[in-house]
Amino acid sequence: MASPLARPFPALPRVAGCRIGVAHAGYRNWQRNDVTFLAFDEGTTVAGLLTRSKCPSPEVEWCREVLGAGRARGLVVNAGNSNAFTGAAGRAASAAQVAEAARLLGCAPREVLVASTGVIGVPLPVARAIAGVRAAHARLGEADWRQATEAIGTTDTFPKAAAREAMLGEARATFVGFIKGSGMIAPDLELAGATMLGFIVTDAAVAPGFLAHALERASEQTFACITVDGDTSTSDTVLAFATGALGNPPIDGWASPGADAFAFALLDLCRELALLVVRDGEGAQKLIEIRVSGAVSDASARRVGLAIANSPLVKTAIAGGDANWGRVVMAVGKAGEPAERDRLSIRFGGVEVARDGGVVPGYDEAPVAAHLAGEEIEIAVDLGLGEGRATVWTCDLTHGYIAINADYRS
Question: Longest Cα pair distance anywhere in the chain, in angstroms?
Answer without folding.
Answer: 72
